[in-house]
């Protein structure tokens, strides 16, 4: 049978010769996908209890994400016990252990990881510090003006992506939330909206744009600040404008479109998180958006990914007060990006043991940080084999039941139809905590952590 | 089994006013008698039912949004060190989730009502409340700007609106219904507000805030919910808003309603220069209308975080302060704004606010109908309640504090003329028996047989702030959770949920609207029961 786009992706082919002998597939409507920050919850799955065969409505990323979900080979419980004990031993012996990753874990697993880091007096950090953490820091400087994605769907007539390529990183963003979707006050969908993309090169997303502004690399802060000046009608340095690669006419046109909008949104992508300025780039977005609220309603939002990195921000914030880069070595949460971010701690060689949850997280670290991971005892938890050789690797379920947060921090429930034979991150983290609890415990004393002034 | 022997008991719900009597607790309840177990010698001590907070913000998307924005506040706040019984955390203006449980229990409070839950993100509110130990919780869910409901009200479809309200309440696993700046938050999504009850709400043809308030109050009464409409009136914080507040109270004459943080709604004057307290006008009307309850929303000087679903007000406050501004618009339902704020004694407006909260607490004659709150974290943090109790119980201390205000502010309030001093019996009503009754929680706020075994035991002390800051023992569900100023155990708390009856056919009406207006599937929207530990479901 030919597969059309509306059938969704065939995640896995069934043996065609014996199809008639196979039991019919079970159908799961409205399944949730955490393949990226979109966290679509309209996927229709067909499965046989061991593997997923069809994921209707899913994109390529979603297809890959569902394909990973199978009943894995049963691992030996003896081996799991030994691995958990070895992990606990390494972490217990360490002076400054690091727990890192968690972007693909459920909130329930993240909760366990925080409890573990606290129990160890260690540091916990997530993929946030490598990406939209810049946006969190900007919020700490000046605030954050945001919304849930349904406001974009229902209301936004002006959509700007800056340094983002959603067509590839968040494939259903346009279709479900921002562009072609129709909403309460956007009955004509695409026709009701203006799409502007600012990027350093042409991408699959710029091809969709009404206006594509090509900016020179590393000029985001300057361009955003000059745009704000144009919106305000205040002065700016024309030489600085020329350096951005944009013209005054382009910025005037953009400013006009923004002011004219009924409800506008700026989505902020990796381009701003990874270039010179990081959190100041994001602060420039916030300042622009605040300025635009004197004219009309304007909003901004970072393009969070992987699937549940937003959940990690939320669970860390309610437990510790801080969204990422949290250290417990004084027995209470302290925060300092850079000082307590995984990349910095590892690159400076300060960490003497690491627990990486989701090995993609390790792959995203800079080279100097990855080098240190191979020098110290490292434990990895992942469904996939690690890309380097850790001291202990525990295979966990690719996807487990629990809570994930969409990129706009709307919580959704994951109910995978396939129960993996491998334990979940949550379970393994709890087992490590239980194993640690049997060893000598560390408790801070007020005198030790807060010396008298 | 736990016996509290020889304490001086204040149990207003049962008319017990400072009587030396024994209280016996067993199976998490107050019982008539029992043998064995531990005995607490409470001779000379004051025994209260555990405190109940009728209006606080301790969990959820908005509060957490605030938490993540203010590291500079956390760094100067009291740390909570990890110990054998406590998780690590931070105190300060917005304590972390575990710390919130310890700090409430640490002053004798054992039940809290989270007063503003966006339903779309209610799952996360319940998850955070799960990690807020010891205290039992209820939630009020936000409906006063829900466009699905507003659209029905504009079309005059009362019966269907009632079904939708009931469906939502159960879907979100809420306990009561909150209305914030009716129509104003929906208008804010177009950059507007709704300050007057008679103005048509932006985006609608005939719907007014007054009509939204009256309709929802009627629906809540018809659904027979245990807690009345929990209302944050329109025009919060503005000089001269007393007119809007009085008009709102008149709109509510034939219904029950709880007016939240009344202090923020009791100002006279024309602008920020001439702002004054109009608490007497509010209190006079309120005293004569028994259908209403309220909480103070009192203010203390110092750093605070203002946090409200009232998006347009928070934007104005940002413009006034020039500090950080946080805003979240929540699709179809509500919004949220966050602005850090400092209440300064020498600032005329802040001084007037400080006096207005106290005036209301002293001028409202029936303590059963007014509860102690600071609209945490807006007026100040909840852990400063004991300071307010001292101001209420000690008129000479109050006079000293009043004298510190600027002359200009002192002339804008009648606080100097008020000599009333709250008695311990009245304080037990204000902090426990009254709010429990307002919430409709019959097992809370008293020590009669069958009540939940939640008890606060204080060493008698002439300074109320000292006394209420440091209970000698706090008992929750029959377990000693605080003893000698330390957390001894952190029992899992309970969640109160209301299940109103509704016609299941309403789902056929809602499903296509979810498809066209929401970004989550209808089937995925409701909060699963498993998220609420040890739920207590009230079917109505």
UniProtKB/TrEMBL annotation, chain A:
One GO cellular component term noted in the UniProt record for this chain: membrane
GO MF terms held by the record: formylmethanofuran dehydrogenase activity; NADH dehydrogenase activity
Keywords for the protein's UniProt record, in alphabetical order: Oxidoreductase
TM stretches of this protein: none
Every Molybdopterin oxidoreductase domain range: 95-294
SUPFAM superfamilies given in the database record: Formate dehydrogenase/DMSO reductase, domains 1-3
Entry superkingdom: Bacteria
Matches recorded under InterPro entries: Formylmethanofuran_DH_bsu (IPR016457), Mopterin_OxRdtase (IPR006656), Prok_molybdopt-oxidoreductase (IPR050123)
Biological process according to GO: methanogenesis; respiratory electron transport chain
Protein name: Formylmethanofuran dehydrogenase subunit B
Species of origin: Limnoglobus roseus
UniProtKB/TrEMBL annotation, chain B:
GO MF terms held by the record: hydrolase activity, acting on carbon-nitrogen (but not peptide) bonds
InterPro entries: Amidohydro_3 (IPR013108), Formylmethanofuran_DH_asu (IPR012027), Metal-dep_hydrolase_composite (IPR011059), Metal_Hydrolase (IPR032466), Metallo-dep_Hydrolases_sf (IPR050378)
Pfam family, one: Amidohydro_3
Ranges for domain Amidohydrolase: 38-482
NCBIfam families: one_C_dehyd_A
Name by which UniProt lists this protein: Formylmethanofuran dehydrogenase subunit A
Upper classification of the organism: Bacteria, Pseudomonadati, Planctomycetota, Planctomycetia, Gemmatales
